[in-house]
């Protein structure tokens, strides 16, 4: 088991490294370097950056040196918790991202949680009551969930909420608590606003998980051990939850790793449509303004967050399935 | 939408017309693999219907300029944000579609433009009417369009099946042209990822060993990265002064850069399972070259799986492009794609006043569903001996 987790952790480290390289590429892509855009920025504000200051900045970021040296310098700055300056906001990137990053984590985890909570019982139900009305409804909703891109779903729900109930369903906080300091009331407000974005984000994942759970469980239900258990006189609910569901859970758990990147990806666009105060709108603005340190940092943080989530789900998988635990490959 | 297919359960026979068993059995024994697949595919009614829908969409791609009746770039401030006009099919008892002329005026209180149909003036809608000039199939210059009105550029004498956008451009015509770009970008992208996926997946599956481990790790890494932020970063870095065509290809490359993994996985899986099959071993034993073993003996036996996987990869491509363009990072106006059209529906205030701006979402959803069902059907059919 330790070997398995070790291997997964090693892969996670590699992934983080790949993500950091890609984020660095994003920072490097636009023509010119950070300092030239910084000088232009300052000039447009009416202040002048002296040559000496520019020189200092260049040295700090190692500009003008070979690319890999610049990358290493960037990594070293990050290790010290310095993600660079946001040109647009003229504040350290960490300050700009701050709360938004944690809200992104909250929204993503909430929709992942919702995905499981919905997919598990619905999947079990559609398998046990195959071809019942509930099964058809579940499968139909599942297909819709898979086919409708989540930002369009958000748009449609926003419109319906606006026209039918005259309510604005977007946002994560009520207007009066938008900028308030954290308090119980604000947390409660967040919890009240969370379900709709979480549902929109999680729908595609849920649909997929329902299909996987249903297919797996249907395979298991036909096996002889189920008949044996039934003939022993176990009640149906005990029987299903105790044996086939446990077995069917395994492929279910292994796909969670792919669900999280999908949710995080989706949260970027959905946040824009619903006006959620996550890093999504910030990333878009940063990219359009070519505020590359901010953009690169957001991509990096999102990537790292996904990798950690995937690692956790991998470990969860080992815990659920003893076969993987014992397999020494 | 119909419920997913039930008739294809494990018990249902995959032969057409099970009424005459003997004759049918013979037909099945002599049928080619493709024939078996075709029969099996035809059993999957939802997939067949989806195939027709997809074909319909690609006909729109071919004939976009014939189906459009107004120049998609012609803007007119006098008819900005006009709601869809109702087409009356019967004039009295006679078939003669017409629309009422529309009078636009500014509401003095809200300062919005409001449009009111004027029942006193009927504008006939004609088939094969003359409109703007274009080249049919890119070859034949013509001015005929499927429908149109005789009004020329008079702002009051027009037909707008789906209304107009902020600049007063006809949404229907723009949708037709948008279909052309959105659907071809998927095709080009999927071709690129197919090439990458088959080469890398093939290497991985056929040779195994270090190449396999390396490629599998790369795929795992790519799959655990949230794609949209990455795409956004790459797309935002495209130079602003690139032409439509350059941006188009750049976006396809960006999208397919990360989309090949699924195809590579399918190809690898097939290679792995075929490598030890008797017919492959015997091909090797009789001295076929490696190239011949792969391309003459192995590839044809999983061709159908690749086609199915490709079909399933297409909708993801289309959605990706739509999402990027919707954010303003993909294709940019004057290019037209579904995502570009949806940009106008980004905020809820606009949409609440002019809900028809959301209509480009409909073809996205329909085509994605159709491709998904079609892909499912193809995947089932790809293995005629499967069940």
Can you walk through the features of this model?
The complex is a heterodimer of chains A (329) and B (387). Chain A is an all-alpha fold. Chain A contains 16 helices and two strands. Chain A has helices spanning 2-28, 34-45, 51-61, 67-79, 93-128, 133-147, 150-164, 184-193, 195-221, 224-231, 236-242, 244-254, 256-274, 279-288, 292-320, 322-326; strands at residues 85-86, 91-92. The model of chain B is unreliable at 1-15 (pLDDT under 50). Helices cover 56% and strands 13% of the residues of chain B. In chain B, α3 (45-62) crosses α13. The interface between A and B is large, with 56 and 43 residues.
Topology:
The complex is a heterodimer of chains A (329) and B (387).
Chain A lengths: L1 H27 L5 H12 L5 H11 L5 H13 L5 E2 L4 E2 H36 L4 H15 L2 H15 L19 H10 L1 H27 L2 H8 L4 H7 L1 H11 L1 H19 L4 H10 L3 H29 L1 H5 L3
Antiparallel strand pairs in A: 1-2
Chain B lengths: L20 H10 L2 H11 L1 H18 L1 H4 L20 E4 L2 E13 L6 E24 L3 E10 L21 H37 L1 H15 L3 H10 L7 H32 L2 H8 L4 H38 L10 H5 L5 H6 L7 H21 L6
Antiparallel strand pairs in B: 1-2, 2-3, 3-4
Helix pairs in contact in B: 2-13, 3-5, 3-13, 5-6, 5-8, 5-10, 6-8, 7-8, 8-10, 9-10, 10-13
Q: What is the structure about, briefly put?
A:
In chain A, about 80% of the residues lie in helices and about 0% in strands. Chain A has about 325 residues and is mostly helical.
């Amino acid at each position: 088991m330790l070997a398995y987790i070790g291997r997964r952790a090693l892969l996670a480290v590699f992934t983080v490294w790949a993500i950091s390289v890609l984020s660095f590429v994003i920072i490097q892509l636009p023509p010119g370097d950070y300092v030239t855009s910084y000088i232009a920025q300052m000039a447009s504000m009416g202040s002048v950056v002296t040559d000496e200051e520019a020189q200092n900045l260049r040295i700090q970021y190692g500009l003008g040196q070979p690319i890999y040296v610049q990358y290493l310098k960037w990594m070293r700055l990050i290790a010290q918790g310095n993600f660079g300056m946001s040109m647009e906001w003229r504040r350290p990137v960490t300050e700009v991202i701050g709360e938004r990053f944690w809200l992104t984590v909250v929204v993503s985890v909430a929709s992942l949680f919702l995905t499981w909570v919905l997919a598990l019982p619905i999947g079990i139900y559609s398998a046990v009551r195959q071809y019942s009305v509930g099964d058809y409804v579940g499968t139909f909703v599942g297909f819709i969930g898979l086919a409708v891109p989540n930002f369009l779903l958000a748009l449609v729900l926003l419109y319906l909420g606006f026209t039918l109930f005259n309510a604005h369903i977007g946002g994560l906080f009520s207007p009066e608590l938008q900028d308030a300091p954290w308090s119980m009331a604000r947390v409660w407000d967040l919890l009240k606003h969370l379900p709709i974005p979480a549902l929109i984000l999680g729908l595609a994942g849920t649909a997929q998980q329902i299909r996987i759970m249903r297919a797996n469980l249907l395979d298991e239900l036909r096996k002889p051990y189920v008949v044996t258990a039934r003939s022993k006189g176990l009640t149906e609910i005990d029987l299903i939850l105790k044996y086939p569901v446990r077995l069917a859970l395994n492929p279910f758990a292994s796909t969670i790793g792919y669900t999280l990147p999908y949710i995080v990806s989706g949260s970027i666009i959905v946040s824009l449509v619903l006006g959620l105060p996550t890093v999504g709108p910030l990333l878009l603005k940063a990219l359009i303004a070519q505020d590359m340190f901010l953009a690169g940092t957001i991509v990096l943080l999102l990537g790292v967050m996904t990798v950690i989530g995937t690692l956790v789900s991998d470990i969860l998988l080992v815990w659920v399935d003893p076969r993987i635990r014992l397999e020494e490959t | 939408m119909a419920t997913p297919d039930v008739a294809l359960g494990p018990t249902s026979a995959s032969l057409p017309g099970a009424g005459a068993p003997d004759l049918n059995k013979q037909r099945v024994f002599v049928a080619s693999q493709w024939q078996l697949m075709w029969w099996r595919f035809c059993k999957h009614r939802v997939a067949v219907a989806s195939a027709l829908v997809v074909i319909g969409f690609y006909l729109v791609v071919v004939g976009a300029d014939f189906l459009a009746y107004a120049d998609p770039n012609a803007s007119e401030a006098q008819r900005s944000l006009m709601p869809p006009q109702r087409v009356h099919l019967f004039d009295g008892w006679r078939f003669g579609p017409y629309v009422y002329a529309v009078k636009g005026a500014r509401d003095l209180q809200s300062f919005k433009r409001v449009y009111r149909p004027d029942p006193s003036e009927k504008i006939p809608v004609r088939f094969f009417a003359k409109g703007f000039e274009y080249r049919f199939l890119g070859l034949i210059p013509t001015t005929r369009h499927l429908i149109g009105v005789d009004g020329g550029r008079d702002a009051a004498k027009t037909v707008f099946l789906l209304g107009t956008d902020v600049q007063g451009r006809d949404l229907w015509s723009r949708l037709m042209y948008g279909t052309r770009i959105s659907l071809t970008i998927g095709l080009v992208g999927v071709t690129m990822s197919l090439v990458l996926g088959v080469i890398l997946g093939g290497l991985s599956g056929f040779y195994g060993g270090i190449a396999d481990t390396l490629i599998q790790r790369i795929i795992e890494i790519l799959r655990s990265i949230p794609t949209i932020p990455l795409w956004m970063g790459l797309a935002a870095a495209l130079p602003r002064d690139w032409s439509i065509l350059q941006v188009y290809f750049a976006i396809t490359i960006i999208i397919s850069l990360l989309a090949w993994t699924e195809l590579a996985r399918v190809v690898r899986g097939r290679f792995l399972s075929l490598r030890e099959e008797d017919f492959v071993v015997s091909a090797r034993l009789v001295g076929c070259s490696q190239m011949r073993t792969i391309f003459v003996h192995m590839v044809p036996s999983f061709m159908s799986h690749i086609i199915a996987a490709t079909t399933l990869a297409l909708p993801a491509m289309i959605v990706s492009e739509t999402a990027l363009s919707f954010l303003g990072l993909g294709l940019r106006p004057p290019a037209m794609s579904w995502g570009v059209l949806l940009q106008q529906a980004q905020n809820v205030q606009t949409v609440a006043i002019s809900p028809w701006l959301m209509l480009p979402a409909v073809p996205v959803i329909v085509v994605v569903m159709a491709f998904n069902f079609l892909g499912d059907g193809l995947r089932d059919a790809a293995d005629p001996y499967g069940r």
